Each structure stands twice: as structure tokens, then as C-alpha cells.
Amino acid sequence: MTVKPIVLQELPSDLDKSRLPQHVAVIMDGNGRWAARRGFPRIVGHQRGVDALKDLLRCCRDWGIPALTAYAFSTENWGRPLEEVEFLMTLFERVLRRELKEMMREDVKIRFVGNLAALPHSLQQEIARSMQETAANSGIQFTVATNYGGRQEIVQACREIAKKVQQGLISPEEVDEAMLENHLYTVGIPSPDLLVRTSGEMRISNFLLWQMAYAEIYVTSTLWPDFDRSQFHEALKDYQGRERRFGKL
């Protein structure tokens, strides 16, 4: 007989509600390896990865974490096999169409960040529709980084600021951290407190390079499709066991 895992709906009693991260970011790594170990095509791993992300989003809502950002597709991911890239684009579009009503019911506010203009036109339309329809929602802020690269983001911001300097709209002395942040894709979104990376890889892979300046990083060897609420519970316990000094004593 198969024993079903216990789904932790309420915040576990060993977590301090007042010390939860306000924004969690995730690098969802290991979908392909998860599928390969089971003899499945890589696309099956991506499909299961969507289910894991949906549950994490609901878990953040249930436990009182107001913001979640997921690294869905990087600028480097275009280098994957064409059939896998095409599947991912189709999957993103299909999931948006299928889940929009549920996101509205659950009061999710979704936002996409990245170079969205390079995505297929039909996907751009679904992205625009989902952001527009959920814009007034006041529940969890769900940000999806799609065709996103941290270096590209910073370069783009610098170009926009340089144009304003060139046009005489601002002086070089006025350029500061706040101004640069206001030209990033993530303007208006607080920086993450906690970054979770699955599959054991010890790198941040060009994800939110500016925003991660003082994020706590938690790496687990668990592959993304197997990352569930119990795994997230462990990540949060680890986070609450750290002392965040932000460079101070």
C-alpha cells in the first residue's frame, strides 16, 4: 500500500511567522534529470515541474509569504535542443490559459520579467492578458522570469540611464542605486530574502544578480519535481536559523 505524504496546509509550528521571508525566489533545476532517471522524455520532467511550482505558490499563500519569483526560462536556455525550447514555449502558453481562472479565484497577481519581446507572439499575448486580468489582485505576488538574464537586465538599465544623461534629462551625479533599480525589469518588486536552488548546483546562473545582493541562499540536492512542502519547510527552517546582518555587526 502506498502511503500518501502529509500535505502541510498550515504553517508548521516550528517556524516563526514573524521571521518568514517576505519574498522567495526559486531556481527550478533538475526537471530533465528527474525524467531521465525514470526513463521518461525530458518534457515529462517539465510538466511535473509545473505541478511542483503550482504547489509551492499555494504553499507560500497558505503560510503567509507574500511574494514568489520563479526562474522559468533564461536567456541561455535558447541553446537547448529546438524541440525542447518549442515545447517549453507551448507549455508556458498552455499553462497560462489553463490556470488564469484559478489565479483569479486565488487572488494571485502575476507578473513576467525579462526580454518578453523575443518570445513567440501568441505567448506574448497570453502573458499580457494574464498580467492585465490579475493586475488588481491583492494576494500573493507571483513573478515569472522568462527569457531573463541578470547581466542583460543590468546592461539594459544602464543603456536607458545613459540615454537620459545624453539627452540632458539627468546628470551623471544623479545616478545612484535607487535610479538603477527603477530601470530594472523588477522595478516595484522587493528584493528576495531567500533563494532556493534545487538539484545541488552551487551557482545562481545569471538570476537576479542585482537583487540577490543580500539574499540567503539555500541549495538542496532534491530535483525540482520532487520539491514539495516538506522540502520547503526544511528550507525555511534553515533560513530562520541564520543571522542576517546585511554587512553589519
Structural account:
By secondary structure, this protein is of the alpha/beta class. It has one domain (20-149, 191-237): Undecaprenyl pyrophosphate synthetase. The chain contains seven helices and six strands. The protein has helices spanning 31-37, 42-63, 82-105, 121-134, 150-166, 177-181, 229-240, and strands spanning 23-27, 67-74, 109-113, 141-148, 194-197, 216-219. It has a six-stranded parallel β-sheet with strand order 3-4-2-1-5-6, with helices on both faces. Strand 3, helix 4 and strand 4 (141-148) form a beta-alpha-beta unit. Helix 1 (31-37) packs across helix 2 (42-63), helix 2 packs parallel to helix 3 and helix 3 (82-105) runs parallel beside helix 4. It is globular, with a radius of gyration of 19 Å. The N and C termini lie far apart (53 Å). The mean pLDDT is 94.
Walk me through the topology.
Layout: E1 23-27, H1 31-37, H2 42-63, E2 67-74, H3 82-105, E3 109-113, H4 121-134, E4 141-148, H5 150-166, H6 177-181, E5 194-197, E6 216-219, H7 229-240
Parallel strand pairs: 1-2, 1-5, 2-4, 3-4, 5-6
Helix pairs in contact: 1-2, 2-3, 3-4
